[in-house]
Amino acid sequence: MAEYYAVHDMTAYPVQHIAVLAAGLPDTSRTKTRTSGNSVPDRDILLAYIADKTALTAWLLSSDGQSGDNRPVSMVGALLGEQQDKRNSEADTVGFDSPADFHSAWASIVGG
Questions:
Q1: 60-92 pLDDT, tens per residue?
Q2: Residues 57 and 82 in one domain
């Protein structure tokens, strides 16, 4: 509300007045985004959808698309939290307490 109407103290106004102001907020406002349940504005989802379909078309025309390898990750899915890039998942992340621990793990991976 403060971003559009300079209302910093909503308790100073009647509830009906605040409701009218809230109804007039654009869909990209923080208030409408939070109350709609979406973490991303609809415009950004639509743009990500366009980018997804463009990337999918390019992929289908490539040699990877012909063989079914390296399918592009959906930006819409990433924005909405529906999918996780398997190549960068946190389950694959490993931490080490010391450089010596890292070097021993690396040696076991490369066979050295």
A1: 999 998 898 889 999 998 888 876 555 555 566
A2: yes
